[in-house]
Design goal:
76 residues, mainly beta, four-stranded antiparallel beta sheet, single chain, 39% strand, 0% helix, PWP2, two-stranded antiparallel ribbon
């Protein structure tokens, strides 16, 4: 199966080699975008940035196996 996705707006001015994680549905992913998390729905070709904003840039995050909770670490 040959799948090719084009990432749009993933590597912008605030993206600094942060982690990228697929959600359990395998059609969505989260990436650290500065001090917020950005959600991409690869099936519907949509994205949005979370309203929650940290004081520092996100350097690490992980999600639970059901995709309902995330733990986030910043530069502090």
């Amino acid at each position: 199966m040959d799948i090719k996705y084009k990432f749009v707006d993933l590597i912008g001015s605030s993206y600094r080699n942060g982690p990228v994680r697929f959600l359990p549905d395998n059609f969505s992913l989260l990436c650290a975008n500065g001090n917020r998390l950005k959600y991409f729905d690869l099936k519907r070709n949509t994205s949005f940035t979370s309203e929650i904003q940290l004081k520092c840039n996100i350097i690490a995050f992980d999600i639970n196996s059901t995709g309902t909770h995330a733990i986030v670490g910043d530069e502090r």
